[in-house]
Protein backbone atom coordinates (compact mmCIF):
# COMPACT_ATOMS: atom_id res chain seq x y z
CA UNK A 1 0.00 0.00 0.00
CA UNK A 2 2.83 2.39 0.88
CA UNK A 3 4.60 1.59 -2.37
CA UNK A 4 1.47 2.37 -4.39
CA UNK A 5 0.99 5.64 -2.51
CA UNK A 6 4.58 6.63 -3.21
CA UNK A 7 4.14 5.82 -6.89
CA UNK A 8 1.03 8.03 -7.06
CA UNK A 9 2.80 10.90 -5.30
CA UNK A 10 5.76 10.60 -7.65
CA UNK A 11 3.41 10.62 -10.64
CA UNK A 12 1.76 13.81 -9.36
CA UNK A 13 5.13 15.50 -8.92
CA UNK A 14 5.98 14.76 -12.54
CA UNK A 15 2.87 16.61 -13.75
CA UNK A 16 3.63 20.27 -14.57
CA UNK A 17 2.43 22.80 -11.99
CA UNK A 18 0.26 24.67 -14.50
CA UNK A 19 -1.51 21.46 -15.45
CA UNK A 20 -2.13 20.57 -11.78
CA UNK A 21 -3.60 24.02 -11.16
CA UNK A 22 -5.84 23.71 -14.21
CA UNK A 23 -6.99 20.26 -13.11
CA UNK A 24 -7.76 21.52 -9.60
CA UNK A 25 -9.69 24.50 -10.96
CA UNK A 26 -11.77 22.29 -13.24
CA UNK A 27 -12.56 19.92 -10.37
CA UNK A 28 -13.57 22.83 -8.16
CA UNK A 29 -15.97 24.16 -10.79
CA UNK A 30 -17.46 20.69 -11.26
CA UNK A 31 -17.96 20.23 -7.50
CA UNK A 32 -19.60 23.65 -7.19
CA UNK A 33 -21.92 22.91 -10.12
CA UNK A 34 -22.88 19.50 -8.70
CA UNK A 35 -23.53 21.05 -5.29
CA UNK A 36 -25.81 23.69 -6.81
CA UNK A 37 -27.70 21.05 -8.80
CA UNK A 38 -28.06 18.93 -5.66
CA UNK A 39 -29.60 21.87 -3.81
CA UNK A 40 -31.94 22.56 -6.74
CA UNK A 41 -33.17 18.95 -6.61
CA UNK A 42 -33.37 18.57 -2.83
CA UNK A 43 -34.75 21.99 -1.87
CA UNK A 44 -38.31 21.51 -3.24
CA UNK A 45 -38.61 18.17 -1.43
CA UNK A 46 -37.33 19.69 1.80
CA UNK A 47 -39.71 22.63 1.53
CA UNK A 48 -42.60 20.21 1.01
CA UNK A 49 -41.59 18.28 4.12
CA UNK A 50 -41.30 21.52 6.12
CA UNK A 51 -44.79 22.58 5.02
CA UNK A 52 -46.07 19.16 6.11
CA UNK A 53 -44.97 20.06 9.65
CA UNK A 54 -46.47 23.57 9.65
CA UNK A 55 -49.94 24.95 10.24
CA UNK A 56 -51.98 26.80 7.64
CA UNK A 57 -51.24 30.11 9.37
CA UNK A 58 -47.49 29.49 9.27
CA UNK A 59 -47.59 28.48 5.61
CA UNK A 60 -49.48 31.66 4.72
CA UNK A 61 -46.80 33.72 6.45
CA UNK A 62 -44.18 32.65 3.92
CA UNK A 63 -41.48 30.11 3.16
CA UNK A 64 -39.42 28.51 5.91
CA UNK A 65 -36.54 26.04 5.93
CA UNK A 66 -37.07 24.99 9.55
CA UNK A 67 -39.67 22.30 10.39
CA UNK A 68 -42.44 23.19 12.80
CA UNK A 69 -44.36 21.09 15.32
CA UNK A 70 -47.69 20.46 13.59
CA UNK A 71 -46.85 17.18 11.87
CA UNK A 72 -48.99 15.07 14.23
CA UNK A 73 -51.90 17.48 13.92
CA UNK A 74 -51.67 17.46 10.12
CA UNK A 75 -51.53 13.68 10.14
CA UNK A 76 -54.62 13.49 12.32
CA UNK A 77 -56.43 15.93 10.03
CA UNK A 78 -55.48 13.89 6.99
CA UNK A 79 -56.61 10.62 8.54
CA UNK A 80 -59.93 12.15 9.63
CA UNK A 81 -61.01 12.84 6.05
CA UNK A 82 -63.56 10.52 4.52
CA UNK A 83 -61.41 9.22 1.69
CA UNK A 84 -59.46 5.91 1.86
CA UNK A 85 -55.90 7.25 2.01
CA UNK A 86 -54.25 4.10 3.39
CA UNK A 87 -56.30 1.87 1.07
CA UNK A 88 -55.22 3.96 -1.90
CA UNK A 89 -51.60 3.63 -0.78
CA UNK A 90 -51.81 -0.16 -0.84
CA UNK A 91 -53.77 -0.09 -4.11
CA UNK A 92 -50.88 1.76 -5.73
CA UNK A 93 -48.40 -0.73 -4.29
CA UNK A 94 -50.34 -3.68 -5.73
CA UNK A 95 -50.63 -2.10 -9.17
CA UNK A 96 -47.05 -0.83 -9.28
CA UNK A 97 -45.35 -4.05 -8.21
CA UNK A 98 -47.63 -6.34 -10.24
CA UNK A 99 -47.26 -4.40 -13.47
CA UNK A 100 -43.52 -4.01 -12.95
CA UNK A 101 -43.04 -7.74 -12.33
CA UNK A 102 -44.87 -8.60 -15.56
CA UNK A 103 -42.98 -5.95 -17.49
CA UNK A 104 -39.60 -7.17 -16.26
CA UNK A 105 -40.17 -10.84 -17.00
CA UNK A 106 -41.75 -10.56 -20.43
CA UNK A 107 -39.67 -7.61 -21.64
CA UNK A 108 -36.47 -9.43 -20.75
CA UNK A 109 -37.85 -12.55 -22.45
CA UNK A 110 -38.60 -10.59 -25.61
CA UNK A 111 -35.17 -8.97 -25.62
CA UNK A 112 -33.55 -12.36 -25.07
CA UNK A 113 -35.41 -13.71 -28.10
CA UNK A 114 -33.94 -10.92 -30.25
CA UNK A 115 -30.41 -11.67 -29.06
CA UNK A 116 -30.32 -15.45 -28.70
CA UNK A 117 -32.11 -16.43 -31.91
CA UNK A 118 -31.96 -15.61 -35.60
CA UNK A 119 -35.17 -15.78 -37.60
CA UNK A 120 -36.85 -14.18 -40.60
CA UNK A 121 -38.43 -10.79 -39.91
CA UNK A 122 -36.41 -10.19 -36.77
CA UNK A 123 -35.23 -6.73 -37.79
CA UNK A 124 -38.75 -5.77 -38.86
CA UNK A 125 -40.19 -6.77 -35.49
CA UNK A 126 -37.51 -4.86 -33.63
CA UNK A 127 -38.13 -1.80 -35.81
CA UNK A 128 -41.82 -1.98 -34.90
CA UNK A 129 -40.89 -2.02 -31.20
CA UNK A 130 -38.69 1.03 -31.67
CA UNK A 131 -41.49 2.75 -33.56
CA UNK A 132 -43.95 2.06 -30.73
CA UNK A 133 -41.57 3.84 -28.36
CA UNK A 134 -42.05 7.02 -30.39
CA UNK A 135 -45.87 6.96 -30.31
CA UNK A 136 -47.41 8.88 -27.37
CA UNK A 137 -49.67 6.71 -25.24
CA UNK A 138 -52.35 9.41 -25.27
CA UNK A 139 -53.08 8.64 -28.93
CA UNK A 140 -54.42 5.19 -28.08
CA UNK A 141 -56.43 6.17 -25.00
CA UNK A 142 -59.83 6.25 -26.70
CA UNK A 143 -59.35 2.91 -28.41
CA UNK A 144 -57.95 1.35 -25.24
CA UNK A 145 -60.87 2.67 -23.20
CA UNK A 146 -63.39 1.18 -25.65
CA UNK A 147 -61.57 -2.17 -25.61
CA UNK A 148 -61.59 -2.26 -21.81
CA UNK A 149 -65.32 -1.53 -21.69
CA UNK A 150 -66.10 -4.15 -24.35
CA UNK A 151 -64.13 -6.78 -22.42
CA UNK A 152 -65.97 -5.96 -19.19
CA UNK A 153 -62.79 -4.90 -17.42
CA UNK A 154 -63.86 -1.36 -16.61
CA UNK A 155 -63.34 -0.33 -12.96
CA UNK A 156 -60.83 -3.16 -12.37
CA UNK A 157 -57.06 -3.25 -12.00
CA UNK A 158 -56.60 -5.68 -14.89
CA UNK A 159 -56.18 -3.02 -17.63
CA UNK A 160 -53.69 -1.21 -15.39
CA UNK A 161 -51.52 -4.30 -14.89
CA UNK A 162 -51.72 -6.64 -17.90
CA UNK A 163 -50.65 -4.11 -20.60
CA UNK A 164 -47.29 -3.87 -18.83
CA UNK A 165 -46.41 -7.14 -20.58
CA UNK A 166 -45.87 -5.08 -23.74
CA UNK A 167 -43.31 -2.44 -22.74
CA UNK A 168 -41.24 -1.34 -25.77
CA UNK A 169 -38.93 0.85 -23.70
CA UNK A 170 -38.08 -2.02 -21.36
CA UNK A 171 -37.45 -4.36 -24.31
CA UNK A 172 -35.02 -1.85 -25.80
CA UNK A 173 -33.26 -1.44 -22.45
CA UNK A 174 -32.83 -5.17 -21.92
CA UNK A 175 -31.67 -5.76 -25.50
CA UNK A 176 -28.94 -3.16 -25.07
CA UNK A 177 -27.89 -4.85 -21.85
CA UNK A 178 -27.81 -8.27 -23.50
CA UNK A 179 -25.72 -6.94 -26.38
CA UNK A 180 -23.17 -5.45 -23.99
CA UNK A 181 -22.94 -8.15 -21.32
CA UNK A 182 -24.53 -11.45 -22.33
CA UNK A 183 -22.55 -14.44 -23.61
CA UNK A 184 -24.28 -17.05 -25.75
CA UNK A 185 -21.75 -19.67 -24.74
CA UNK A 186 -23.58 -20.47 -21.50
CA UNK A 187 -26.80 -20.95 -23.45
CA UNK A 188 -25.15 -23.31 -25.92
CA UNK A 189 -23.60 -25.27 -23.07
CA UNK A 190 -26.98 -25.60 -21.36
CA UNK A 191 -28.59 -26.81 -24.59
CA UNK A 192 -25.91 -29.46 -24.97
CA UNK A 193 -26.68 -30.62 -21.43
CA UNK A 194 -30.32 -31.04 -22.42
CA UNK A 195 -31.92 -28.01 -20.76
CA UNK A 196 -35.05 -26.67 -22.47
CA UNK A 197 -35.36 -23.03 -23.49
CA UNK A 198 -37.54 -21.84 -20.63
CA UNK A 199 -35.32 -23.54 -18.06
CA UNK A 200 -32.31 -21.81 -19.59
CA UNK A 201 -34.10 -18.47 -19.44
CA UNK A 202 -35.40 -18.85 -15.89
CA UNK A 203 -32.33 -20.39 -14.26
CA UNK A 204 -29.44 -18.94 -16.25
CA UNK A 205 -30.43 -15.86 -18.21
CA UNK A 206 -32.42 -14.04 -15.51
CA UNK A 207 -29.73 -14.39 -12.80
CA UNK A 208 -27.15 -13.02 -15.24
CA UNK A 209 -29.10 -9.80 -15.83
CA UNK A 210 -29.98 -8.92 -12.23
CA UNK A 211 -28.38 -5.42 -12.49
CA UNK A 212 -30.55 -4.59 -15.50
CA UNK A 213 -33.64 -6.03 -13.83
CA UNK A 214 -33.03 -4.01 -10.67
CA UNK A 215 -32.55 -0.83 -12.66
CA UNK A 216 -35.60 -1.29 -14.86
CA UNK A 217 -37.64 -2.24 -11.79
CA UNK A 218 -37.05 1.20 -10.33
CA UNK A 219 -38.18 2.92 -13.52
CA UNK A 220 -41.21 0.64 -13.77
CA UNK A 221 -42.30 1.19 -10.18
CA UNK A 222 -41.83 4.95 -10.41
CA UNK A 223 -43.74 5.18 -13.69
CA UNK A 224 -46.62 3.02 -12.47
CA UNK A 225 -46.78 4.76 -9.09
CA UNK A 226 -47.03 8.19 -10.73
CA UNK A 227 -49.57 7.06 -13.31
CA UNK A 228 -52.63 9.29 -12.96
CA UNK A 229 -54.35 9.33 -16.35
CA UNK A 230 -54.84 5.56 -16.60
CA UNK A 231 -56.59 5.06 -13.24
CA UNK A 232 -58.54 8.29 -13.70
CA UNK A 233 -59.92 6.97 -16.99
CA UNK A 234 -60.62 3.40 -15.85
CA UNK A 235 -61.38 3.48 -12.10
CA UNK A 236 -64.60 4.91 -10.67
CA UNK A 237 -65.00 3.19 -7.28
CA UNK A 238 -63.48 5.31 -4.52
CA UNK A 239 -62.15 2.25 -2.64
CA UNK A 240 -60.15 1.31 -5.75
CA UNK A 241 -58.53 4.73 -6.21
CA UNK A 242 -54.77 4.87 -6.48
CA UNK A 243 -52.70 7.21 -4.34
CA UNK A 244 -52.26 9.94 -7.00
CA UNK A 245 -56.04 9.99 -7.48
CA UNK A 246 -56.63 10.44 -3.76
CA UNK A 247 -54.09 13.26 -3.63
CA UNK A 248 -56.11 15.11 -6.25
CA UNK A 249 -59.00 15.22 -3.77
CA UNK A 250 -56.81 17.40 -1.57
CA UNK A 251 -57.06 20.14 -4.18
CA UNK A 252 -60.82 20.45 -3.93
CA UNK A 253 -62.40 23.27 -1.97
CA UNK A 254 -63.25 20.88 0.82
CA UNK A 255 -59.61 20.52 1.83
CA UNK A 256 -58.09 23.80 0.69
CA UNK A 257 -58.44 25.32 4.17
CA UNK A 258 -55.80 23.00 5.68
CA UNK A 259 -52.60 23.58 3.74
CA UNK A 260 -50.48 21.58 6.17
CA UNK A 261 -52.56 18.44 5.64
CA UNK A 262 -52.41 19.00 1.89
CA UNK A 263 -48.61 19.26 1.98
CA UNK A 264 -48.39 16.09 4.07
CA UNK A 265 -50.59 14.20 1.61
CA UNK A 266 -48.45 15.27 -1.33
CA UNK A 267 -45.26 14.43 0.56
CA UNK A 268 -46.57 10.92 1.23
CA UNK A 269 -46.78 10.30 -2.51
CA UNK A 270 -43.06 10.78 -2.99
CA UNK A 271 -41.78 9.04 0.16
CA UNK A 272 -41.86 5.50 -1.35
CA UNK A 273 -40.05 6.73 -4.45
CA UNK A 274 -37.39 8.47 -2.36
CA UNK A 275 -36.82 5.31 -0.33
CA UNK A 276 -36.55 3.15 -3.44
CA UNK A 277 -34.14 5.54 -5.10
CA UNK A 278 -32.02 5.88 -1.96
CA UNK A 279 -31.63 2.10 -1.77
CA UNK A 280 -30.97 1.42 -5.45
CA UNK A 281 -29.42 4.67 -6.69
CA UNK A 282 -26.07 3.06 -7.47
CA UNK A 283 -27.78 0.26 -9.38
CA UNK A 284 -29.78 2.83 -11.36
CA UNK A 285 -26.68 4.77 -12.39
CA UNK A 286 -24.78 1.64 -13.41
CA UNK A 287 -27.76 0.27 -15.29
CA UNK A 288 -28.32 3.51 -17.21
CA UNK A 289 -24.65 3.58 -18.21
CA UNK A 290 -24.84 -0.01 -19.46
CA UNK A 291 -28.23 0.37 -21.15
CA UNK A 292 -27.03 3.48 -22.94
CA UNK A 293 -24.21 1.57 -24.62
CA UNK A 294 -24.37 1.31 -28.37
CA UNK A 295 -24.34 -1.88 -30.33
From TrEMBL:
Localisation per UniProt entry: Cell membrane
UniProt entry keywords in alphabetical sequence: Cell membrane, Membrane, Transmembrane, Transmembrane helix, Transport
Location (main, coarse): membrane
All copies of domain ABC transmembrane type-1, residue ranges: 89-280
GO biological process terms, semicolon-separated: transmembrane transport
Entry GO CC: plasma membrane
Transmembrane segments: 29-49, 88-117, 124-145, 157-174, 200-225, 259-280
Membrane topology: Multi-pass membrane protein
UniProt similarity note: Belongs to the binding-protein-dependent transport system permease family.
Protein's recorded name: Carbohydrate ABC transporter permease
Amino acid sequence: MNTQAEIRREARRQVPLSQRIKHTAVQTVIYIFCTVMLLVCVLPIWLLFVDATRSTTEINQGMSLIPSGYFAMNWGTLMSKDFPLIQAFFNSIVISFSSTALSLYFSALTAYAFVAYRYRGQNVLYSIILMLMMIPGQLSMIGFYKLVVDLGLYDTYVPLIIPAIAAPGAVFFFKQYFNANFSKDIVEAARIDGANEFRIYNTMVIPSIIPAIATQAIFGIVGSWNNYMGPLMLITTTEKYTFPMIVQLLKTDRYNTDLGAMALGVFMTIVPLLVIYAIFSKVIINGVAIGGGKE
